[in-house]
Amino acid sequence: MVRQNWYDIVPHNRELRIVMPRQKPLAGVASFLSCHDQQNADLVLSLLKELAFVAETPVQNNLCHDRALHDRHNPQWSVGNRMLIPKSLVLGIQLILRGLSPGSLVKFTWCYPWLPRGIMNSNGYIPRFQPQIVSLELYTQAGDETGTGRSSIAEEISVDGLVQLRHLTCLVWHGICPRRHALVLDTCIRQNSGTLERLDLRFSRRAVDRTPSVARAHDRDPVEFPNLRMLTLENVPISESGVIASLLSHPSGVDPWDLNGHGLDQSKWKEKELGNALVLSRAR
User: Fold this and answer.
1) Predicted model pTM
2) Among candidate residues 109, 91, 119, the one with its CA nearest the CA of residue 30
3) What percent of the chain has pLDDT above 70?
4) What is the C-alpha to C-alpha distance for residues 110 and 175, in angstroms, rounded to an integer?
5) How many CB atoms lie within 10 A of CB 43?
6) Contact 74, 12 (CB under 8 A)
7) Domains in the chain, please, with CATH?
8) pLDDT in tens, 140-155
9) 237: which DSSP letter?
10) Cα dihedral sign for 183, 185, 188, 193?
11) Can you tell me the distance from the alpha carbon of 120 to that of 37, in angstroms, rounded to the nearest whole number?
12) Residues 108-132: pLDDT tens digits?
């Protein structure tokens, strides 16, 4: 592993992990670029199989909201997802993404409370140039998820490009807003039901509190998940089109829908609780 202050490179796995520290979110991108001339940077990026952008610490989940309150009229910041985003950071991220070889990524990870447009929206970089990825992990919890009282930004995050991903074996998303993301998430899961091995969905708590408790578990045909090995659900409100209902067959302690045995055979699964989350793993 090649480790610098704000980025890590794992040559064997062709993995690059860029950290966005609290005080200087551009530091990870800048550190990587400063340590490589353009030719070397292009070579490293073109060979990558895994790319991750991550916050320095969980405390950073409040960073964007705090800056939004104080820097709203600063021209160096760009409005997005109700937050004020440093334009230099957006440009730096775009520079990294443009250096990748189209069709080369296997895994993409984003761990930050806001997700800039241009990454996962319908015309974003991942669905346009890396639709073959098999692992997608999004951690977009906002400050309110810790009970601070701040307003959620989950509703503003655009991930419409999810429907263009059809080869996922792993889908992790923490910070889902059911009102904003239910349809696109449902479509994505249906399209990848035959290949998914791990599914980890954790909904925004405040968004769940505002969502009517209405179940429509049988609006469409049940979905089969023949390869699923690990399922984690947290704060699940409803399944407006039934795909999550198809995942469950009345596991103990979770009974938000009237199910008729569709989905997983509970006898083949082990169940445990992890905090507020329900975790199911296929029994060996």
Assistant:
1) 0.77
2) 91
3) 61
4) 12
5) 12
6) no
7) 2-211 (3.80.10)
8) 876 544 444 344 455 5
9) -
10) negative
11) 28
12) 999 988 888 899 999 999 999 999 9
